[in-house]
Every structure is written in C-alpha cells, then in structure tokens.
C-alpha cells in the first residue's frame, strides 16, 4: 500500500495567545476547507513560558469568531520534540526567528525549516506585528496577514 507523508506546520509567537493561535486557526480552516486535514498536522506555541495553559486573548477569539472560525487552543511553549517532528516552523517576527534558531541549534536531529510566516505574504509584509497592546483593528490586521500568508504557504506546499 502507498504511504502518506504528512506535512506539519508549526506557528510560533512570543506568548502564543494572539498571533500564533490566529495563524493556527486560519491555517486549520484552510486545510479543512480544502479537505486536506489528513495531510497536515498544525499546532502553535510560544518561545516564552509566560502564558502556558491560557486560552487566546479575548480579542483574538473575537476576531476569529467574526470570520466564522473557532479554536480551543491553549498556550504552550515550544519543545525540543517540535523541532524534530515538524517540517515547518513559521514565526511572526525577527525576535521569534532569532530565539527559534538559537533553540534549534541545541536540538539534535532538528528537521524543521524555520522561517517567517510573512515570507509567504503576497503583499510582502514580512513582519506580523504583535497586536497585544493594540485594539481590535490590530487583531484584524493580523488575521488578514495570516490569511494571505497561510493561503500562499498552502499553495506552495500542497
């Protein structure tokens, strides 16, 4: 019988309560809408341990609900196993990228390709800014960026 390679996407931000849960939920919905959920495993995490166990920010949840997307995500911190398991680890800004590259250098058998999610933005907005200290409009901007980037990423790797 034919074996199936499962592609794995992992989304990372500093606290895992705003940007990365939005990106995770958006990507999961895209994959489900395309009936590709059997080919993808999607998760998100933080580089820090500040919010471990917390649900996403209420403004992130509200933004997702406004677009018909639900999530039951709880924040967690990235692990060594994530670097060994996931094919892609996509992050939101240069600080995340530096932290992830540093952490990955300490992991034997790191297989993940680590890059900015914004690399896939057709509008070339490389950085997805943290909306935590902003307002609902800032969360909507993050959603729109994540949607563009996740669509382009999925098109490239599907």
UniProtKB/TrEMBL annotation:
Keyword Iron-sulfur annotated: no
An example molecular function term from Gene Ontology annotations: non-membrane spanning protein tyrosine phosphatase activity
SMART domains reported for this sequence: LMWPc
EC number: 3.1.3.2, 3.1.3.48
Role of this protein: Acts on tyrosine phosphorylated proteins, low-MW aryl phosphates and natural and synthetic acyl phosphates.
Gene3D superfamilies attached to this UniProt entry: 3.40.50.2300
Record's subcellular location: Cytoplasm
Active site: 19, 130
Superkingdom of this protein's organism: Eukaryota
Keywords annotated in UniProt: Cytoplasm, Hydrolase, Protein phosphatase
Catalyzed reactions: O-phospho-L-tyrosyl-[protein] + H2O = L-tyrosyl-[protein] + phosphate; a phosphate monoester + H2O = an alcohol + phosphate
Species name: Phainopepla nitens (Phainopepla)
Enzyme class: hydrolase
Protein name: Low molecular weight phosphotyrosine protein phosphatase
Similarity comment text for this entry: Belongs to the low molecular weight phosphotyrosine protein phosphatase family.
One Pfam family per UniProt: LMWPc
Main location per the UniProt record: cytoplasm
């Amino acid at each position: 019988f034919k074996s199936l390679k499962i592609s794995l996407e992992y989304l990372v931000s500093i606290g895992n309560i705003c940007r990365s849960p939005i990106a995770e939920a958006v990507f999961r919905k895209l994959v489900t809408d395309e009936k590709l959920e059997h080919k993808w495993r999607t998760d998100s995490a933080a580089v820090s341990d500040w919010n471990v166990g917390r649900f996403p920010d209420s403004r992130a949840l509200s933004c997702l609900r406004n677009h018909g997307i639900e999530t039951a995500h709880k924040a967690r911190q990235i692990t060594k196993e994530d670097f060994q398991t996931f094919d892609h680890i996509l992050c939101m800004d240069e600080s995340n990228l530096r932290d992830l590259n540093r952490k990955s250098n300490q992991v034997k058998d790191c297989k993940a390709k680590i890059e900015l999610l914004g690399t896939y933005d057709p509008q070339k907005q490389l950085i997805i800014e943290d909306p935590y200290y902003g307002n609902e409009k800032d969360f909507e901007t993050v959603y729109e960026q994540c949607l563009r980037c996740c669509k382009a990423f999925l098109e490239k790797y599907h």
